[in-house]
Design a protein that fits this description.
Structural class: alpha+beta
Order of helices and strands: EEEHEEHEHEEEEEH
Largest sheet: 5 strands, mixed
Helix content: 25-40%
CATH class of the largest domain: Alpha Beta
CATH architecture of the largest domain: Roll
Distance between the termini: 49 Å
Number of domains: 2
Protein backbone atom coordinates (compact mmCIF):
# COMPACT_ATOMS: atom_id res chain seq x y z
CA UNK A 1 0.00 0.00 0.00
CA UNK A 2 0.82 2.12 -0.36
CA UNK A 3 0.85 5.44 1.55
CA UNK A 4 -2.23 7.59 1.13
CA UNK A 5 -0.76 11.08 1.17
CA UNK A 6 -3.18 13.96 1.70
CA UNK A 7 -0.39 16.54 1.50
CA UNK A 8 -0.57 16.98 -2.24
CA UNK A 9 1.71 19.35 -4.12
CA UNK A 10 0.12 22.47 -5.55
CA UNK A 11 -0.40 21.80 -9.25
CA UNK A 12 -0.46 24.87 -11.47
CA UNK A 13 -2.32 24.01 -14.66
CA UNK A 14 -4.49 27.08 -15.29
CA UNK A 15 -3.34 29.85 -17.65
CA UNK A 16 -1.47 32.58 -15.82
CA UNK A 17 -3.69 35.57 -15.13
CA UNK A 18 -3.29 39.29 -14.89
CA UNK A 19 -5.55 42.06 -13.80
CA UNK A 20 -6.16 45.23 -15.78
CA UNK A 21 -2.84 46.93 -16.29
CA UNK A 22 -0.92 43.81 -15.22
CA UNK A 23 2.01 42.35 -17.10
CA UNK A 24 1.77 39.37 -19.38
CA UNK A 25 3.41 36.39 -17.64
CA UNK A 26 3.43 33.85 -20.47
CA UNK A 27 5.63 34.70 -23.49
CA UNK A 28 3.71 35.02 -26.74
CA UNK A 29 0.26 35.19 -25.20
CA UNK A 30 -1.93 37.70 -23.43
CA UNK A 31 -4.40 36.21 -20.97
CA UNK A 32 -6.73 38.65 -19.30
CA UNK A 33 -8.93 38.20 -16.24
CA UNK A 34 -11.85 40.56 -16.60
CA UNK A 35 -13.52 39.92 -13.23
CA UNK A 36 -16.42 37.87 -14.64
CA UNK A 37 -14.47 34.65 -15.37
CA UNK A 38 -14.22 35.37 -19.14
CA UNK A 39 -10.85 34.47 -20.64
CA UNK A 40 -9.60 36.13 -23.82
CA UNK A 41 -6.49 34.98 -25.62
CA UNK A 42 -5.03 36.75 -28.59
CA UNK A 43 -2.85 33.84 -29.71
CA UNK A 44 -4.24 31.12 -31.96
CA UNK A 45 -7.77 30.02 -32.67
CA UNK A 46 -10.39 29.16 -30.07
CA UNK A 47 -10.01 25.50 -31.04
CA UNK A 48 -6.27 25.57 -30.36
CA UNK A 49 -6.82 27.28 -27.03
CA UNK A 50 -9.44 24.67 -26.12
CA UNK A 51 -7.08 21.84 -26.93
CA UNK A 52 -4.36 23.40 -24.78
CA UNK A 53 -6.74 23.80 -21.85
CA UNK A 54 -7.97 20.22 -22.18
CA UNK A 55 -4.41 18.88 -22.35
CA UNK A 56 -3.44 20.77 -19.20
CA UNK A 57 -6.54 19.47 -17.43
CA UNK A 58 -5.75 15.85 -18.38
CA UNK A 59 -2.14 16.13 -17.23
CA UNK A 60 -3.21 17.70 -13.94
CA UNK A 61 -5.78 14.95 -13.34
CA UNK A 62 -3.23 12.19 -13.88
CA UNK A 63 -0.70 13.87 -11.58
CA UNK A 64 -3.33 14.40 -8.90
CA UNK A 65 -4.34 10.73 -8.83
CA UNK A 66 -0.72 9.54 -8.78
CA UNK A 67 0.03 11.68 -5.74
CA UNK A 68 -3.33 11.02 -4.04
CA UNK A 69 -3.21 7.25 -4.32
CA UNK A 70 0.47 6.78 -3.67
CA UNK A 71 0.93 4.49 -6.67
CA UNK A 72 4.67 4.82 -6.29
CA UNK A 73 4.54 2.69 -3.13
CA UNK A 74 2.20 -0.20 -3.92
CA UNK A 75 -0.26 -1.40 -6.51
CA UNK A 76 -2.95 -4.09 -6.48
CA UNK A 77 -1.60 -7.61 -7.02
CA UNK A 78 -3.62 -10.49 -8.45
CA UNK A 79 -3.64 -13.90 -6.80
CA UNK A 80 -3.87 -15.57 -10.17
CA UNK A 81 -5.80 -18.78 -10.80
CA UNK A 82 -2.76 -19.91 -12.78
CA UNK A 83 -0.85 -20.31 -9.51
CA UNK A 84 -3.76 -21.76 -7.57
CA UNK A 85 -5.35 -18.46 -6.52
CA UNK A 86 -8.90 -17.16 -6.66
CA UNK A 87 -8.35 -14.45 -9.28
CA UNK A 88 -8.89 -11.71 -6.69
CA UNK A 89 -6.74 -8.61 -6.32
CA UNK A 90 -5.09 -7.41 -3.09
CA UNK A 91 -3.29 -4.31 -1.95
CA UNK A 92 -1.42 -3.43 1.23
CA UNK A 93 -2.32 0.13 2.19
CA UNK A 94 0.19 1.87 4.45
CA UNK A 95 -1.08 4.47 6.93
CA UNK A 96 2.07 5.50 8.78
CA UNK A 97 0.25 7.49 11.46
CA UNK A 98 -2.04 4.54 12.22
CA UNK A 99 -5.65 3.70 11.42
CA UNK A 100 -8.41 1.89 13.30
CA UNK A 101 -10.14 -1.24 12.05
CA UNK A 102 -13.44 0.57 11.49
CA UNK A 103 -11.75 3.32 9.46
CA UNK A 104 -9.86 0.66 7.49
CA UNK A 105 -13.12 -1.13 6.72
CA UNK A 106 -14.70 2.10 5.50
CA UNK A 107 -11.69 3.00 3.35
CA UNK A 108 -11.61 -0.46 1.75
CA UNK A 109 -15.31 -0.30 0.92
CA UNK A 110 -15.00 3.19 -0.52
CA UNK A 111 -12.32 1.86 -2.87
CA UNK A 112 -14.81 -0.70 -4.20
CA UNK A 113 -13.34 -3.61 -2.22
CA UNK A 114 -13.35 -4.91 1.33
CA UNK A 115 -10.86 -5.83 4.03
CA UNK A 116 -9.09 -9.02 2.97
CA UNK A 117 -10.67 -12.32 4.03
CA UNK A 118 -8.18 -15.13 4.46
CA UNK A 119 -10.15 -18.33 4.10
CA UNK A 120 -7.31 -20.77 3.45
CA UNK A 121 -3.66 -21.27 4.28
CA UNK A 122 -2.70 -20.54 0.69
CA UNK A 123 -4.58 -17.24 0.68
CA UNK A 124 -3.17 -16.31 4.07
CA UNK A 125 0.38 -16.93 2.86
CA UNK A 126 -0.16 -14.99 -0.36
CA UNK A 127 -1.54 -11.94 1.43
CA UNK A 128 1.18 -12.09 4.07
CA UNK A 129 3.77 -12.04 1.28
CA UNK A 130 2.60 -8.51 0.41
CA UNK A 131 3.89 -7.16 3.74
CA UNK A 132 6.38 -9.64 5.13
CA UNK A 133 9.37 -7.69 3.78
CA UNK A 134 7.91 -4.26 4.56
CA UNK A 135 8.76 -3.40 8.19
CA UNK A 136 6.98 -0.06 7.87
CA UNK A 137 3.69 -1.96 8.19
CA UNK A 138 4.70 -3.44 11.54
CA UNK A 139 5.28 -2.16 15.03
CA UNK A 140 5.69 -3.90 18.34
CA UNK A 141 2.01 -4.85 18.63
CA UNK A 142 1.57 -6.22 15.13
CA UNK A 143 0.81 -5.69 11.47
CA UNK A 144 -2.04 -4.55 9.20
CA UNK A 145 -5.76 -5.09 9.63
CA UNK A 146 -7.75 -7.80 7.85
CA UNK A 147 -11.46 -8.44 7.39
CA UNK A 148 -12.21 -10.59 10.42
CA UNK A 149 -14.29 -9.41 13.38
CA UNK A 150 -16.10 -10.84 16.39
CA UNK A 151 -19.87 -10.29 16.34
CA UNK A 152 -21.15 -10.04 19.90
CA UNK A 153 -24.72 -10.30 18.63
CA UNK A 154 -24.12 -13.65 17.01
CA UNK A 155 -25.92 -16.58 18.70
CA UNK A 156 -22.60 -18.43 18.85
CA UNK A 157 -20.74 -15.53 20.45
CA UNK A 158 -18.50 -16.55 23.32
CA UNK A 159 -15.08 -15.35 24.39
CA UNK A 160 -12.61 -15.80 23.01
CA UNK A 161 -13.41 -17.98 19.96
CA UNK A 162 -17.14 -17.62 19.33
CA UNK A 163 -18.82 -15.30 16.87
CA UNK A 164 -15.90 -14.59 14.55
CA UNK A 165 -16.90 -13.65 10.99
CA UNK A 166 -15.52 -12.33 7.73
CA UNK A 167 -16.81 -9.00 6.42
CA UNK A 168 -17.60 -10.73 3.11
CA UNK A 169 -19.95 -13.24 4.74
CA UNK A 170 -17.73 -16.19 3.76
CA UNK A 171 -17.66 -19.11 6.21
CA UNK A 172 -15.30 -18.76 9.16
CA UNK A 173 -13.42 -22.04 9.05
CA UNK A 174 -9.70 -21.55 8.47
CA UNK A 175 -7.81 -19.73 11.26
CA UNK A 176 -4.16 -19.03 11.99
CA UNK A 177 -4.09 -17.56 15.49
CA UNK A 178 -0.83 -16.58 17.12
CA UNK A 179 0.15 -18.47 20.29
CA UNK A 180 -2.17 -17.42 23.13
CA UNK A 181 -4.70 -15.71 20.85
CA UNK A 182 -7.48 -14.73 20.60
CA UNK A 183 -7.16 -13.38 24.09
CA UNK A 184 -10.46 -12.08 25.34
CA UNK A 185 -13.33 -9.64 25.68
CA UNK A 186 -13.25 -6.25 23.98
CA UNK A 187 -10.75 -7.29 21.32
CA UNK A 188 -12.95 -7.78 18.32
CA UNK A 189 -10.87 -7.17 15.17
CA UNK A 190 -8.33 -9.19 13.22
CA UNK A 191 -4.79 -8.23 12.22
CA UNK A 192 -1.47 -9.90 11.48
CA UNK A 193 0.83 -10.30 14.48
CA UNK A 194 3.83 -12.44 15.33
CA UNK A 195 4.62 -14.02 18.67
CA UNK A 196 7.36 -12.28 20.67
CA UNK A 197 7.32 -9.18 18.42
CA UNK A 198 8.14 -10.99 15.20
CA UNK A 199 6.80 -10.50 11.66
CA UNK A 200 4.71 -13.59 10.95
CA UNK A 201 1.59 -14.73 9.06
CA UNK A 202 -0.23 -15.44 12.33
CA UNK A 203 -3.23 -13.53 13.70
CA UNK A 204 -4.15 -11.52 16.76
CA UNK A 205 -7.39 -9.95 17.97
CA UNK A 206 -7.30 -6.26 18.85
CA UNK A 207 -9.32 -3.10 18.45
CA UNK A 208 -12.84 -2.60 19.71
CA UNK A 209 -16.33 -2.77 18.27
CA UNK A 210 -18.15 -2.86 21.60
CA UNK A 211 -16.66 0.22 23.25
CA UNK A 212 -15.26 -1.84 26.13
CA UNK A 213 -11.66 -1.72 24.96
CA UNK A 214 -9.36 0.98 23.70
CA UNK A 215 -9.49 1.18 19.89
CA UNK A 216 -5.99 0.47 18.62
CA UNK A 217 -4.53 2.01 15.45
CA UNK A 218 -2.21 -0.06 13.29
CA UNK A 219 -0.12 1.04 10.35
CA UNK A 220 -2.34 -0.08 7.53
CA UNK A 221 -4.70 -2.68 6.16
CA UNK A 222 -5.12 -5.17 3.32
CA UNK A 223 -7.89 -4.51 0.80
CA UNK A 224 -9.30 -7.19 -1.51
CA UNK A 225 -11.26 -6.88 -4.76
CA UNK A 226 -13.13 -9.67 -6.52
CA UNK A 227 -12.12 -8.25 -9.91
CA UNK A 228 -9.38 -5.98 -11.17
CA UNK A 229 -9.92 -2.62 -9.39
CA UNK A 230 -11.05 0.14 -11.71
CA UNK A 231 -9.23 3.49 -11.55
CA UNK A 232 -12.54 5.16 -10.85
CA UNK A 233 -11.07 8.19 -9.14
CA UNK A 234 -8.90 8.97 -12.17
CA UNK A 235 -11.81 8.52 -14.59
CA UNK A 236 -14.13 10.68 -12.52
CA UNK A 237 -11.57 13.42 -12.11
CA UNK A 238 -10.68 13.56 -15.80
CA UNK A 239 -14.34 13.51 -16.85
CA UNK A 240 -15.24 16.21 -14.35
CA UNK A 241 -12.41 18.53 -15.26
CA UNK A 242 -12.84 17.75 -18.94
CA UNK A 243 -16.49 18.71 -18.71
CA UNK A 244 -15.55 22.00 -17.11
CA UNK A 245 -13.07 22.68 -19.91
CA UNK A 246 -15.67 21.86 -22.56
CA UNK A 247 -18.18 24.18 -20.94
CA UNK A 248 -15.60 26.96 -20.85
CA UNK A 249 -14.90 26.48 -24.56
CA UNK A 250 -18.62 26.46 -25.48
CA UNK A 251 -19.22 29.63 -23.50
CA UNK A 252 -16.39 31.38 -25.31
CA UNK A 253 -17.80 30.37 -28.71
CA UNK A 254 -21.15 31.92 -27.88
CA UNK A 255 -19.59 35.34 -27.29
Amino acid sequence: METRNSNLPQLNFLPRLRGSGGKTTEPGATVLYTGNTDFHNTRGSEESQGRRVMMRIAICAICFVVFATGTGDATPVEWSAAIGGNGHWYEAVLISEGITWLDSKLAAEQSGGYLATLTSEAENNFVFSLVKDMPEFWWWQGGPWMGGYQDQNDPDYAEPLGGWKWVSGEPWSYTNWMKGEPSGAGQDCLHFAGYDLTIAPTWDDAGALSGTHVEQPYRGYIVEWGAVPEPASLLALICGLGGAGSMLLRNRRRK
